[in-house]
Amino acid sequence: MKLSNFGNKFTQDAGINSLMVDLGEAMKDENSLMMGGGNPGYLPEVQQMFQRELQNLAGDDQAFRNLTGIYDPPQGDKAFREALAELLAAEYQWPIAADHIALTNGSQSAFFMLFNMFAGKFTDGSYKRVMLPMVPEYIGYADAGLAEDFFISRQPLIEMTGDHRFKYHVDFEQLNIDDSIGLLCVSRPTNPTGNVLTDEEMARLVAIAAEKDIPLVVDGAYGLPFPNLVFTDAQPVWDEHLILCLSLSKLGLPAVRTGIVIAAPEIITALSTINAILNLAPSSFGPVLACSAVRNRQILQLSEKVVKPFYQQKAQKAVEILDRELTGIPYALHEPEGAMFLWLWLRDCPAGSDLLYRRLKEIGVILVSGHYFFPGLPDDWEHARQCLRITYSQDDRDVEKGLLLLAKEIHAIYGC
Ligand SMILES: Cc1ncc(COP(=O)(O)O)c(C=O)c1O
Question: I want to staple 229 with a disulfide (CB 3.0 to 4.6 A). Which of 48, 177, 222, 416 is the partner?
């Protein structure tokens, strides 16, 4: 098979692909302890709400036709976009209308389109890159550029917040954003670290985007206003320079593939045109299924009262287990401020995180080596090989079993 540059670039060993293959197999293997992916946990209340809605839709001829039998316009289901715009305007006083919103088949596909809209080659001969102001960042961005050398990123500042705790901060001194940057992107909360960028950091990033007149993508897949896996008192942010990407996945609908992009109408129109070429139309299923919950605000209530506490309790339990089991190890955990991950830093670790990943996989514990999460760093950084991402979203007993095996392996590696 002879492949084009495109074919070669997108079939080479992409981190996200090997991860998804590994994770997909592990999810189906009953003997694996799955602590690797971003799969949401099982929340009966959320599932029941969507089940009831699906039953209602299935029993109504017109509603069922909207759900399955009609291509939406490239911008996505209008009723959902109107309902969401109304929610955002009423709850946060954001000046948002339906034409500020486009739907995509998962937010993953939105990043691909947005990154390549604002970075790569320009007609004036210039070349721009996507800047990740702080890594570690989401692995799913790393292979999403059509061009090579697509990302540039910066190391964070590390604040030690306790004996075994730390928090990353954006190192604004090192950002140096010049004309070679076409777009900034952060996830908030951050996958893989569970960090939540502070309101002050967000304000400074928005100010930089405004000054440089480039968009700031804020990936709120775990964030505000839903699914609200945010355990600090961070505020949701909107500004005309911002592109806010949301998703229904972490609320409990990853298989439905619904991404939501909120941005200036000019950006939304351009994105929808690309969406039409790639997908014809985004799926109607998620927006039709979730529309009532957006209209009656149940999506916010469930996020606040059910989804957030579910993950926060799981985070606390996982932290307690690691603190108990890692006595004597020079470890540090990133402050668990949100999302569904613990980020474990094994300081002066005698083995790299990749080796630890493989040893754990052999005994059926699947988690993710930290080195994947540093795309675009100009220099090698030892810290990248000393970290692991641990997902705590699955069954409590399995998470505990997995953490005990992990701790045992870590003690064996440190020889203590
Ligand atoms: C930070 C982050 N953003 C975006 C996504 C993509 O989610 P989806 O394409 O399901 O909306 C994920 C998935 O795990 C994620 O972790």
Answer: 222
For 208-261, write each residue's pLDDT tens digit. 999 999 999 999 999 999 999 999 999 999 999 999 999 999 999 999 999 999
Task: Provide the whole-model pTM.
Answer: 0.96
Indicate if 157 and 182 belong to the same structural domain: yes
Q: Which of 265, 299, 333 is a domain's end point? A: 299
Given 299, 332, 363, the domain boundary residue is 299
106 lines ligand 1 (CB under 6 A): yes
Asked if residue 113 lies in contact with residue 274, where contact means CB atoms within 8 angstroms, the answer is yes
Look up the CATH number of the domain holding residue 193.
3.40.640.10
Of ligand 1's atoms, which has the minimum distance to the CA of residue 254? 10
CA-based angle 327:330:336, to the nearest 5? 85
Same domain, residue pair 247 and 306: no
- The CB-side HSE value for 165 (13 A sphere, CA atoms) comes to 10
- Our answer on whether the CB atom of 138 is closer than 6 Å to any ligand 1 atom is yes
3-state secondary structure of 314: helix
Neighbours of 199 (CB within 10 A): 14
Q: Which atom of ligand 1 is nearest to the CA of 38?
A: 14
In the predicted structure, residue 16 carries a pLDDT above the cut 70: no
Q: Does the Cβ of 111 fall within 6 Å of ligand 1?
A: no
| Confidence at residue 20, expressed as pLDDT on a 0 to 100 scale | 72
Nearest CA to ligand 1 atom 16: 191
pLDDT digits (tens, 9 = 90+) for 65-105: 989 999 999 999 999 999 999 999 999 999 999 999 999 99
User: Residue 117 has which token pair?
Assistant: 């809209």
Q: How confident is the model at residue 296 (pLDDT cuts 50, 70, 90)?
A: very high
